[in-house]
Design brief:
The structure is a single chain. By secondary structure, the chain is mostly beta strands. The chain is built from four helices and 15 strands. The strands form two sheets. A nine-stranded mixed β-barrel has the order 7-8-9-10-11-12-13-14-15. A five-stranded mixed beta barrel has the order 1-2-3-5-4. The longest helix is centred in the first third of the chain and has 20 residues. It is globular and about 65 Å long.
Length: 330
């Protein structure tokens, strides 16, 4: 295992940034890394998370079985994984962020090394040294495939954490735990949080509508561009009803009729619900160099937010990628 240890140490630099940037890791000590040496007891290739069970053989871990959580299948596929990357009985050395109190012997994968010297990283897809190779193509419009670069959310999460809450929201947040996260029950993530997830996005531009796709839960949003208004008594859905307009080269999307959601935005204020009065406005603009699209977001929800939440995201242009299908297992 000495070769494996050396490779793991060498890999720490390239994975530390993206791992810390992910916003759904509240149940783990992301500032701490533990090492578990053992053999693979199970490898569950599923969404929304792939799981690895490792039977520890290192005496310092007490010979315990560890349940290790990692990313969803689309992200792992882009990082070089397959359903056959690990097999039961494989000798491995796993580095992980350990679970917080109450989640002993649970971990969030940082890297896993096999006895043949190979190292699997959950987010090799976001390695910064690959970024220059992705800049050969430039977007002339919003149409195309985009991703959150390196899993970074700009000022989005910081400003979400600074957003003042109503008393009702504070009580709901205090009662929320990681086990209450709707995605674990295969309930899709609504806008704007879905745009801050480390999954691919695709934009199609049509004369009368814009299609916004995200591979997380295979979400597809239709933005009506034909001048219609929101229906007075329309159904409330997870992605709501969206209408749009062009302000020069800026696409403005207005969304209402969003269904109730236990935690529509993750991060520092996770657990604040979304209610019937929620109103989301998005403004999309392509950068002058065609490499990025900036998205300014405003969320109003007077039942839970004492003031509107405003944040900004950036996507990178990645025309060489295709969205993967996302089948969720609760």
């Amino acid at each position: 295992m000495r070769l494996i240890v050396s490779l793991l140490l060498a890999s720490t630099v390239c994975i530390s940034g993206p791992a810390a940037a992910h916003h759904s890791r509240a149940g783990f000590e992301t500032d701490s890394v533990a090492a578990v040496q053992g053999r693979v007891a199970s490898f569950t290739w599923s969404n929304p998370h792939v799981y690895i069970e490792v039977e520890a053989t290192d005496p310092s871990t007490g010979g315990s079985r560890w349940m290790i959580e990692t990313d969803a299948i689309p992200i792992l596929l882009r990082s070089g994984w397959t359903a056959d990357s690990l097999k039961v009985g494989d000798a491995v050395l796993a580095r992980l962020n350990p679970g917080k109190p109450g989640r002993e012997h649970h971990g969030l994968l940082v890297s896993i090394a096999k006895q043949d010297g190979s190292v699997l990283l959950p987010r090799a897809h976001f390695e910064r040294d690959l970024a220059p190779a992705r800049r050969q193509s430039r977007a002339a419009t919003l149409a195309g495939v985009w991703e959150l670069p390196f899993g970074e959310t700009g000022d989005f999460m910081r400003r979400w954490g600074e957003t003042p809450l109503t008393e009702k929201a504070q009580a709901a947040k205090a009662a929320f735990g990681p086990e209450d996260r709707p995605a674990g029950d295969c309930i899709e993530t609504p806008t704007p949080m879905i745009m801050a997830m480390p999954y691919l996005n695709e934009i199609e531009l049509h004369e009368d509508r814009v299609i916004l796709r995200n591979e997380f839960f295979d979400v597809e949003r239709v933005v009506y561009m034909d001048g219609r208004d929101h229906p007075a008594d329309g159904p409330r859905t997870m992605q709501g009803h969206s209408i749009g307009r062009w302000e020069g080269e800026v696409l403005v999307v207005d969304t209402r009729l969003l269904a109730d959601h236990r935690a529509p935005i993750r991060g520092p204020n996770e657990g604040v619900p979304g209610g019937a009065q929620r109103h989301v406005t998005e403004r999309y603009r392509v950068s002058d160099d065609g490499l990025r699209v900036s998205i300014d977001v405003v969320v109003e929800d007077p039942e839970y937010l004492a003031a509107p939440f405003e944040g900004t995201l950036e996507w990178a242009y990645v025309p060489g990628f295709e969205l993967a299908s996302f089948t969720c297992t609760p």
